[in-house]
Design brief:
single chain; eight-stranded mixed sheet; 44% strand; 8 strands
Length: 144
């Protein structure tokens, strides 16, 4: 049976740094952005806020979509295709837990855009990170 998983992630920016997670799935550890799976009958925005709060302790507000998967990313952990959507988010409230959530997130840390740990990321994150600096660049004003 063919399956796919819709994943939603938040990019919290602080100056030129972004918040990342070091997570564990089975025996493998990896780096990605706070977020995770969208449940059946769950609105993507609700999933983003839920996952971000569970993993970081922060309440965030989705600002805008930055990127959605362009390639067919097959999971290295399960027989599924992963479709990822990345949102720029703003902190609303809460206390950041850098020590993780005691479950799948081992730690959270800030990293500069020019110094992302790409060697520890999965292909979907690599696709996104390749475009991230341009996606976060100030938008040019449109002239009417």
């Amino acid at each position: 049976m063919r399956k796919f998983s819709c994943r939603i992630y938040g990019v919290l920016r602080e100056g030129e740094r972004v918040l990342l997670t070091r997570s564990r799935f089975g025996p493998k550890t990896f780096i990605n952005f706070p977020g995770g799976g969208v449940e059946i009958e769950e609105a993507p925005g609700d999933a983003l806020r839920r996952e971000f709060a569970e993993e970081t302790g922060l309440v965030v507000k989705p600002v805008r979509i930055l990127h959605a998967s362009l390639e067919a990313h097959l999971s290295t952990q399960a027989p599924i295709q992963i479709v990822s959507v990345y949102w720029l988010v703003e902190r609303v409230s809460g206390e950041l837990r850098l020590s993780g959530n005691g479950e799948d997130v081992l730690e959270l840390f800030w990293r500069g855009l020019a110094d992302l740990p790409l060697q520890e990321m999965f292909p979907a994150e690599l696709e996104f990170c390749e475009r991230l600096p341009a996606l976060l660049a100030p938008r040019a004003a449109t002239v009417e």
